[in-house]
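User: Show me a protein chain along with its predicted structure.
Assistant: Here is one chain, sequence first, then structure tokens.
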Amino acid sequence: MFLLKIISTFLLCFSLSSARAQLEVMDTGGWTTIGALKTLGAVKAKMEYHAAGSDTTYLLFMKDFTKRDKNAESNFFSVRFRNTGDAFNKLYVLLQSFFLEENRGNSYTKTFKLGSDMVNLQHNALITGKGVRLTTKEGYINFSERDIDKLFGKR
């Protein structure tokens, strides 16, 4: 009977510690906005970062152009990634490469993994000129060359 109580206590402690590990509260403070795109006061896209020691995490938050309900919170998607291998600057250069003369053809596309998301970039015609479409499994958004500069804090 005594042995059964010890085993029960051990199992109870083990199950409580594993249950605690499945719920991890994330710190939502400390994010700094690098750049934001707004249309009529509403956010179209936003780039933020959070530095923790030598590690920097970026969050690219975007309005999903596949959704038509302008007021729904579900009309947004995001890509979260670390700056491993200078990913932030490489993403900027890759997006801007769509506006280089040698890449203006419609066959120029790029597909890559950013954080844990697969991302596809391709040319897209905008009302104001040429643009680039960023697509993930969650949705897509269109950017102009100026949008990219604003988002990455270059303007």
